[in-house]
Write a structure and sequence with these properties.
Layout (H helix, E strand, L loop, with lengths): L1 E6 L4 H12 L4 E7 L4 H11 L3 E3 L22 E2 L3 H6 L4 E4 L7 H9 L3 E4 L2 H18 L2 E4 L2 H10 L7 E8 L17 H4 L9 H9 L1 H14 L6 E5 L5 E7 L4 E5 L5 H9 L13 H4 L13 H12 L1 H19 L7 H13 L10 H16 L3
Parallel strand pairs: 1-2, 1-5, 2-3, 3-4, 5-6, 6-7, 8-9
Antiparallel strand pairs: 8-10, 10-11
Helix pairs in contact: 4-5, 5-9, 5-13, 9-12, 12-13, 12-14, 13-14, 13-15, 14-15
Length: 383
């Protein structure tokens, strides 16, 4: 039986991870949970899974149930003081599903103890991927991507020589606004942008999917995880979301991973690694789908994707700043303080200010992140 800690257990990925664990109680035991705001759901999760430790920023959660009545029992569930402390606790696998740069030091803590880090927290990989890979090598840990696209690439690369890999290809559905005329995008409301045609995700990632900034982060994520250059990662529009990624090899052949669009496949692939899960998702019926469509991305419709490539080529400081600025701008868009089309315009200004910083040491990442946020808030005119 594998022990599992889930950071961000009340979010979309965290909830799906707990569903996967619940389906296989003979294989997995939850030993740690964390949430940021949703105390009610965290309380229900604590009552159901009885982990040894949990973290909630506001402090201890009052939980009902006989198992929680004996407060003197020191072996029972305890509220720890930080996400990093929770990640440091023993667990065979830590799933990082927190949002934004907040997951950075928890990821570092897992790898420093030689643990397995299954990570959906793309901002942490984008900002600190080079350092995380160094820690993985130094301490003997393992980073397993939870993003569907990167999980697919990892599976396509299994058994292959890195020297024979020519290109990594990430697919993109196009998000909720893929068929909206470009000249209408400035009028799109958050409610419309949140209506993703294929995936059910958190608000931030759904807006990023609508602008394709999410795919830009995934390009950088692929660069960090698989240690390749920006020119080695390509984006391909694919509205059916059946082909999750492809790998092109030196002989011109390509391998792809196909499945129904369900993140539980990549979650269970991580949980069972290096084995595969069993009946993680329903079998794909290509005869029922009939046709799969592919096209090149339109940078006029998706300028955020082009900005991400520009940042990737500029250096780590630009990437960290762009990711931080996007968090602020998505927040303000959801609050209806800015338009959707303001996001790429303001991202471009942030990129121009921070693009001269080539490499960033681990201890300086949060400083650049904070400076970029403050700069972005100053442009928006509100915090």
């Amino acid at each position: 039986m594998k022990t599992v800690t889930i950071l961000g257990s009340t979010g979309s990925v965290g909830r799906q991870a707990l569903e996967c664990v619940s389906r296989h109680p003979e294989a997995f035991k939850v030993v740690g949970l964390s949430a940021y705001k949703n105390e009610e759901l965290l309380r229900a999760q604590l009552e159901k899974f009885s982990p040894a430790h949990y973290y909630f920023p506001s402090g201890a959660v009052e939980v009902q149930g006989s198992l929680f009545d004996i407060l003197e029992d020191k072996s029972f569930t305890k509220c720890v003081g930080s996400l990093e402390e929770l990640a440091s606790k023993p667990a065979d696998i830590v799933i990082s599903a927190v949002s934004g740069i907040a997951g950075l030091w928890a990821a570092v803590a897992v790898l420093k103890r030689g643990g397995t880090l299954a990570i959906a927290n793309k901002e942490t990989i984008v900002a600190a991927g080079r350092h995380l890979k160094d820690l993985e090598r130094k301490y003997g840990g393992k980073i397993i991507p939870l993003d569907t696209e990167h999980s697919a690439i990892m599976q396509c690369l299994k058994g292959e020589s890195k020297k024979q890999v020519k290109k990594l290809v990430l697919t993109a559905s196009g998000g909720a606004l893929r068929d909206v005329p470009v000249d209408k995008l400035s009028k799109i409301t958050p409610e419309e942008a949140l209506n993703h045609p294929v995936w059910s995700m958190g608000k931030k990632i759904t807006i990023d999917s609508a602008t394709l900034f999410n795919k830009g982060l995934e390009v950088i994520e692929a660069m960090r995880l698989f240690e390749v250059g920006a020119s080695d990662v390509e984006v391909l529009m694919h509205r059916e979301s059946v082909v999750h990624s492809l790998v092109e090899f030196s002989d011109g052949a390509q391998k792809a991973l196909l499945s129904v669009p369900d993140m539980k496949l990549s979650i269970e692939n991580a949980l069972y690694y290096p084995e595969r899960g069993v009946n993680s998702v329903e079998a794909l019926r290509l005869d029922k789908i009939g046709v799969l469509n592919f096209s090149a991305p339109d940078f006029e419709r998706y300028p955020c994707l082009e900005l991400a490539y520009e940042a990737a080529n500029a250096g780590e400081g630009a990437v960290i700043a762009l990711s931080a600025a996007d968090e602020v701008l998505v927040e303000k868009y959801l609050e209806k303080k800015i338009k959707l089309t303001d996001i790429p315009l303001l991202l471009k200004k942030t990129l121009s200010k921070f693009k001269g910083i080539k490499e960033v040491e681990l201890e300086n990442i949060l400083s650049i992140d904070e400076k970029a946020r403050q700069y972005t808030y100053s442009m928006v005119g509100t915090k």
